[in-house]
Amino acid sequence: MASSIHTRTHTRWEQVAKTDYTMANTAMAPHDFAVTESYYIFVMNQLALDLVPYVTGLKGPAHMSKSSLHSGFVTVETRRVCRVG
Q1: How far, CA to CA in Å, does 50 sit from each of 4, 11, 79?
Q2: Which of 8, 45, 46, 53 could form a disulfide with 68 if both were Cys (CB 3.0 to 4.6 A apart)?
Q3: Cα(13)–Cα(17) distance, integer angstroms
Q4: What is the spatial distance between Cα 85 and Cα 38, in angstroms, rounded to a whole number?
């Protein structure tokens, strides 16, 4: 996936700090995350996308992804990105 840019802003929406981070080996942008004083924490669901049936109209969006299983459990990875500033 392309680089993600996380920007911290002041109460007046002025940029205070910026962190560039590339999320490699991800099929979709993460939508589960947390923010602490020191880190951005992202929960990365390990998904594989099968776009051909979706693009051809054979499957809907909910049916184009498959979760990777390990010992019967869905594989989830967390990534910590240091906050600057």
Answers
A1: 23, 42, 24
A2: 46
A3: 12
A4: 9
Q: Would you state the pLDDT for residue 2? A: 45
pTM exceeding 0.70: no
Where exactly are the structural domains of the chain?
A: 3-82
Radius of gyration, alpha carbons of the chain: 16
Percent of the chain having pLDDT more than 90? 2
Alpha helices in 1-85 (DSSP H): 51-55
In our burial notation (b when 16+ CB lie closer than 10 A, e otherwise), range 32-68 reads eeeeeeeebebebbbeeeeeeebeeeeeeeeebeeee
Can you tell me the distance from the alpha carbon of 36 to that of 58, in angstroms, rounded to the nearest whole number? 42
pLDDT at 8: 66
Number of H helices, E strands in the chain: 1, 9
